[in-house]
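Let's inspect a concrete specimen:
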Amino acid sequence: MDGCGHEHAHLGMTPAAVRAALAAAEAACAADGERMTAPRLRVLELLLAAGEPVKAYDLIAAYGRDGEAAKPPTVYRALEFLERRGLAHRIASLSAYVACAHDQAEHAAAFLICDCCGATAEVPAGAGAQLSGPAGDLGFVIQRATVEAHGLCARCRPGAA
């Protein structure tokens, strides 16, 4: 339980699903001539297993399988790569990262973020498509767009069971 008075369950992927997602990410990178290095795989594994936004320093602390923290540049470089590849997103309002829930490399991301329990859902972002027209008119090419909406999830809304 936390400040809003009820239990919050945050479930990441099962170990088998994490392995499958890592293999798919590795294959997609290889097909594009990029390497999915061990640090990149480990950071993606941590994000997939968490199933919720994770702060970079929590990734640094959890990085070593033997309990030893990673060096911050190792994790930040991996996060930069994962973001660029569309495998992870940075949620600026939380200063945290989340594994991408979609399998398409380039897309606008939109997140619904519960201010009570912190649950985060990635949903299709129509705003990215709406921005591309005006951006193109100005000669601007959008490389990434992230929309964040804060509120209360169905379990945390007043009167929810």
